[in-house]
Design a protein that fits this description.
Blueprint (H helix, E strand, L loop, with lengths): L6 E3 L10 H6 L5 H11 L4 E7 L2 E6 H17 L7 E5 L4 H12 L3 E5 L5 H11 L3 E4 L2 H10 L8 E4 L13 E3 H14 L3 H8 L5 E6 L9 E5 H14 L7 E3 L7 H14 L2 E4 L6 H8 L3 E4 L1 H16 L3 H19 L5 H15 L6 E4 L6 H9 L4 E7 L4 E5 L12 E2 L4 E5 L7 E6 L6 E2 L3 H7 L6 E9 L5 E6 L4 E2 L5 E2 L1 H8 L5 E7 L6 E7 L1 H10 L7 H5 L2 H15 L8 E6 L19 H7 L1 H9 L3 E9 L5 E12 L4 H10 L1
Parallel strand pairs: 2-12, 4-5, 4-6, 5-9, 6-7, 7-8, 11-12, 13-14, 14-15, 26-27
Antiparallel strand pairs: 1-18, 2-3, 9-10, 10-20, 15-16, 16-17, 18-19, 19-21, 21-22, 23-24, 25-26, 27-29, 28-29
Helix pairs in contact: 2-3, 2-10, 3-4, 3-7, 9-10, 13-14, 13-15
Length: 663
């Protein structure tokens, strides 16, 4: 038996060295200093693009510097103090990045807030961080802030970047971004060296970014990042996955998330990789095809959605196209299992799929933020995408573990990056234990929460991730699940809910699922259908329905999902098979607290909110009656009165029947 590894360092692995150009940039320790450097040396190079009204608008480094310098001076005019906080809420836009860097130039901190945050979430974050200024994209975000009224007393100014619909407001705190920049321009006219002086005086040791943690069990904490940490870790990451000024990136995920900060801000300023901001979520795929990015980061949920959409579109095609698709995937998988690529499958199928998605020019692609099922990962590997898993946390400045280019193992998340280390604490005889990490660019601590900081770090500086994992013989990290989510049935069967959930979500028809079974006699599942695809499937078969709830209750849909769950069961050990399942009457939603803003399941909320359904499953009932009200973000309500069938699966029938007999 080989020796069990419990420690690995990224310095054990040969990574690329930074280019001479990047080494020069990496000497600068703040974003304002980097912006000045880029504007001086590459003034006409494109830094950012934004699509608006169907047209791509470009911003050079000199353009970005002009906007940031005026916003910086405008913030000073509004009284932003050193060490103060600027909140930013809205979609991914160049103005978000400008506001962030302008705040840092004032030696203030930036706080990103998810665009779909509700008023209660905003109030919590404002109470926590006490921003003096909030930059809000549009009328929707301004409405949230104005509705909070006196509940956010620290906010003295609200800067809006989209003037549509704003004329009806007369709140004295409101100011347009144009007015802010004009105030800044006048300030700089009276002090011509202000921008250069302020940028030069920024300090890499200052806390620059407050970044929200996932908040899977409670309200999120705010991780403090210094500029040294942000840029230092970005440079280490660029050794693991090199990018240059010739690279194109499309900013898909929220800028309030740690990894989008790394790419759209730190990499943009360090490597001068061009960042493209899509018009909106509806135009995303068209925008990707137009740009043809060389690098993308998508969350597992987005990759899963793409895979499901591809398979759904194939269902709509002619018979011969479906045959080509099935043949190509089968041959591609067979070649992948041998460590090869099928050139015939690529010629007939996969190059067309890559082109259709806008991925023909990709040299690197990543997924992170949550676990991805191995079936989904293999699907995109077969397609020929250079997909890598990344692993990390907000506290570790995002990813610090990644696959090497020629050593991608879909069952692992790869090696620690340069300067980073991972160890397994309290490993069992098979090497499974808690994943701990340490590197030079960790967060400084949790904002105004030294108790939580002390609790999450060991005395010698290792961060407790809360994840269960182990190291392979060659040093790859395998992450199983959150430690608190690893569970055992009342019969002593250990299982990972996340592992089984990811297998289920590879299905074209499954949007989300929650596997149950902790301290219960067997495993069961709550399943949410992928409405756009299941509705199309139902329409093709002339199955009538009105709403999501109505469709999810149809017997034909239950039969469809039964087949999908049984397919997954066929890949699981007998004691880990799902015995029963129910199709939920609604989608899980972050607005209802069921998911985090990064789409991770909040299991405690699910267990409490759907306790009645769960009890009926384990009581042996064949249905559960529902009479509830769904609240939508726009304030509307919908009463749902329905009956959910509780299905007993063929593979789990023996386990279930034994339990019923025993009862």
């Amino acid at each position: 038996m080989s020796e069990i590894r419990i420690h690995v360092s990224g310095d054990e692995v040969r990574w690329a060295e930074l280019s001479d150009d990047l080494k020069e940039s990496a000497k600068l320790d703040t974003l304002p200093k980097l912006l000045q450097y880029n504007a001086a040396h590459f003034p006409n190079d494109i830094a950012q693009r934004e699509k608006e009204f169907g047209i791509w608008n470009s911003f050079s480094w000199s353009d970005v510097a002009a906007h940031v310098s005026r916003m910086m001076a405008g913030f000073l005019e509004l009284g932003l103090p050193k060490g103060g906080v600027v909140g930013i809420i809205g979609d991914n836009r160049p103005e978000w990045v400008w506001a962030e860097v302008a705040a840092h130039a004032c030696r203030a901190m930036s706080l990103g807030i998810y665009r779909d945050a509700l008023e209660d979430e905003i109030r919590y974050l404002v109470d926590y961080a006490e921003p003096a200024i909030i930059v809000a994209e549009d009328e929707e975000q301004v409405d949230k802030l104005l509705n909070l009224a006196d509940a956010i007393p620290s906010v003295r100014a609200i800067v809006y970047t989209d003037a549509r619909g704003m004329k009806k407001y007369d709140d004295p705190r409101l100011i347009s971004i144009e007015d802010l920049e004009e105030r800044g321009r006048k300030r700089m006219d009276t002090d011509p060296g202000l921008w250069e002086r302020m940028a030069k005086e920024t300090d890499g040791g200052d806390v620059a970014v407050l970044c929200t943690t996932s908040g899977t069990t409670a309200n999120p904490k705010l991780a403090e990042w210094t500029s040294n940490a942000l840029l230092g870790h970005a440079a280490a990451y660029l050794r693991a996955d090199p990018r240059t000024a010739s690279d194109e990136y499309v900013a898909v995920l929220p800028l309030s998330w740690v990894m989008e900060q790394m790419y759209s801000v730190a990499w943009n300023f360090l490597s001068r990789m061009k960042v493209n901001f899509p018009e909106n979520a509806q135009t995303l795929m068209k925008d990707l095809r137009e740009i043809g990015p060389t690098f993308v980061l998508l969350s597992p949920r987005v990759w899963e959605g793409l895979a499901a959409d591809i398979r759904a579109r194939i269902m709509d095609t002619r018979f011969w196209k479906r045959r080509v698709y099935d043949w190509g995937v089968a041959h591609g998988l067979a070649a992948l299992d041998k460590g090869q690529r099928s050139s015939a499958a690529d010629l007939l199928l996969f190059r067309h799929l890559r082109d259709r998605l806008g991925f023909s020019r990709l040299t690197s692609a990543a997924t992170g933020g949550a676990a991805m099922g191995p079936e989904t990962f293999r699907f995109f590997q077969v397609m020929g995408l250079p997909l890598k898993q990344i692993y990390g946390q907000t506290e570790g400045l995002g990813a610090y573990v990644i696959h090497q280019e020629n050593d991608v193992d879909y069952e692992t998340v790869g090696y620690p990056m340069p300067g980073c280390a991972v160890q397994i604490q309290n490993a069992d005889p098979e090497g499974l234990g808690e994943v701990l990490t340490k590197h030079p660019h960790m967060m400084s601590g949790y904002h105004r929460n030294p108790e939580a900081t002390a609790e999450n770090f060991t005395k010698d500086g290792w961060f407790r991730t809360g994840d269960a994992g182990y190291l392979t013989a060659k040093g790859h990290l395998v992450v199983i699940d959150r430690i608190k989510d690893l569970a055992s049935t009342s019969k002593g069967v250990r299982f990972s809910p996340q592992f089984i959930e990811n297998k289920l979500k590879f299905s074209t028809f499954v949007a989300e699922t929650v596997v149950l079974g902790k301290d219960r006699p067997y495993l069961s599942a709550i399943v949410c259908i992928r409405f756009p695809i299941v509705s199309k499937w139902a329409e093709e078969r002339r199955i009538s329905f009105t709403t999501y709830s109505d469709l999810a209750s149809r017997p034909e849909v239950y039969e469809l999902l039964r087949a999908e769950v049984e397919r997954v069961n066929s890949t699981l050990p007998p004691v880990q098979k799902i015995s029963r399942f129910v199709l939920l009457y609604k989608e899980l939603d972050a607005d209802d607290g069921e998911l985090t803003r990064t789409k991770k399941i909040r299991r405690g909320v699910i267990a409490e909110k759907y306790a009645g359904i769960i009890e009926r499953i384990y009581a042996g009932d064949d249905h559960v009656d529902i009479d509830t009200v769904i609240h939508f973000q726009d304030g509307s309500k919908q009463r749902v009165v329905t009956t959910l069938a509780i299905e007993t699966l063929r593979d789990g029938a023996n386990i279930f029947s034994r339990e019923v007999t025993a009862a």
